[in-house]
Amino acid sequence: MKIYLCLSFLLINLAIAWETDNFSTRAQLLKQSREKVLRDLHALNDHTNQRIKDALKQFNRRRRNRCKPDMKRKIPLVTKLIHHAIGAGFSSTYLEAWVEKNIKTLPIINPIYKRGWTPRRAFNFANTIIGSDKIDHMINMGFKLFQKYKKRNLEKALQLSDLTEEIGGPYGLTVSGIKSYGDLAANFAGIYFYTNLTNGPNSHLGCDRKSNKYYLNEPVNWADYIHHSWDQGINCSLFTSLRSPLTKSKLNAYISENKEVNSSMYQKFTKNLDSLFENIYTSEDYKDLGFQNSCPLVDTQCEELIKINCAQYIVSPRCHSKYPSLIDSLKCYDPAPGERFNTSHSFSDYRFEE
């Protein structure tokens, strides 16, 4: 029985563990009109907020459920209910599946990864190139990290996140041969999201003191959480193991040893990226994007990434290697109540209308 369960778990993960191809359609996606980008973001926002409102109705219908005592819990019951409403699913979250079905994007013709599994298509959400799997990582894995964070501490939560992408974990190197720092960043954003549900002056949920019922206070805007650190074209994945947190000695060893060169998957990846560079990135239509033929595709965007909270856990050493002198100044602190994961974007004008 145990063997059967283990095999079932492995097969499920193999079926869903393909990586997102952030490279093949990237140039075309970044040229999409702002109208299209806004429409897709608002559609995701609207659907998310409607699911949350439905979950609140379910919570408020039960007489024994009251928001005032619930908000005092370390992990409020309403948090679990919302996680179930937007994260439930057999092989993917509800929202992830909804994105794949309802948001139009470009098909992959020549995938950057070729290893017996089909890469996921990429989307442009809030001018950030991500796969729908990042929605799953923030909602599902982010909830597991949130629970670990509340029961233990932030360090333990980030260690758990790192293990999921390492050899022996349910994702990453074990099933696809790739350690995704984009996944780790999305996982971490989940701690911010679940914290912000009931905490802070701009919490997503409010508590009516008179009726003792929850209401939607600050609608979710995914632009507050989707971040360039989720983008595997900037926050580059690794084809080898490297445990977090990143330290100066680990970074120096990574740079000097350059173990990835010996990876056949990495060699195929660089060959395919060279082809994209020659045929797409340097063409008249897209050369203004300034892509290079290596990851990160734009070096300067790494400076933004390594300044974010807990970058030593969630940002690729490929970015850190561009600014090695900053490794000793990195900080990692508990997110402040109400603090958004992405505080610099141009999509703050969202309004939720039922």
Plain-language structure description:
Strand 3 and strand 4 form a beta hairpin. The model is unreliable at 1-17 (pLDDT under 50). This protein has 354 residues and is mainly alpha-helical. The longest helix has 28 residues, at 34-61. The strands form two sheets. The chain has a two-stranded antiparallel sheet with strand order 1-2. Strands 3-4 form a two-stranded antiparallel sheet. Helix 3 (34-61) packs across helix 5, helix 5 runs antiparallel to helix 7 and helix 8 (154-165) packs antiparallel against helix 9 (181-198). The chain has one domain (2-329). 46% of the residues lie in helices and 5% in strands.
List keywords for this structure.
single chain; 354 residues; mainly alpha; two-stranded antiparallel ribbon; two-stranded antiparallel sheet; 14 helices; 4 strands; 46% helix; disordered N terminus
Secondary structure: number of strands: 4
The count of domains is: 1
Give the integer mean of the pLDDT values.
92
Main sheet record: 2 strands, antiparallel
> Helices and strands: which structural class?
mainly alpha
| Unreliable spans | 1-17
Enumerate the strands of the largest sheet in spatial order, edge to edge or round the barrel.
1-2
N-to-C CA distance: 47 Å
Strand content: under 5%
What global shape is seen? globular
Number of helices: 14
The helix fraction, in percent, is 40-55%
Radius of gyration: 20 Å
Q: What are the secondary-structure elements, in order, as H or E?
A: HHHHHHEEHHHEEHHHHH
